[in-house]
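User: Sequence recovery, please. Input:
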């Protein structure tokens, strides 16, 4: 039972990490192609950076 649970947790961690990494790779690719841009939005003592499609 513990072995199955360990495998399940390992698989979930791996799958979630891979999905996040693939999404990041796509965003970096789109940034380098110029189809996305990073904009900074300043708020109360903080700055948030967001990735947006290039308008044009």
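Assistant: Recovered sequence (56 residues):
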């Amino acid at each position: 039972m513990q072995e199955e649970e360990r495998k399940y947790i390992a698989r979930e961690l791996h799958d979630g990490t891979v999905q996040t990494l693939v999404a990041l790779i796509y965003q970096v690719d789109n940034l380098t192609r110029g189809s996305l841009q990073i904009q900074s939005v300043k708020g109360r003592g903080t700055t948030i950076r967001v990735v947006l499609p290039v308008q044009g």
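The beta strands are 36-42, 47-53.
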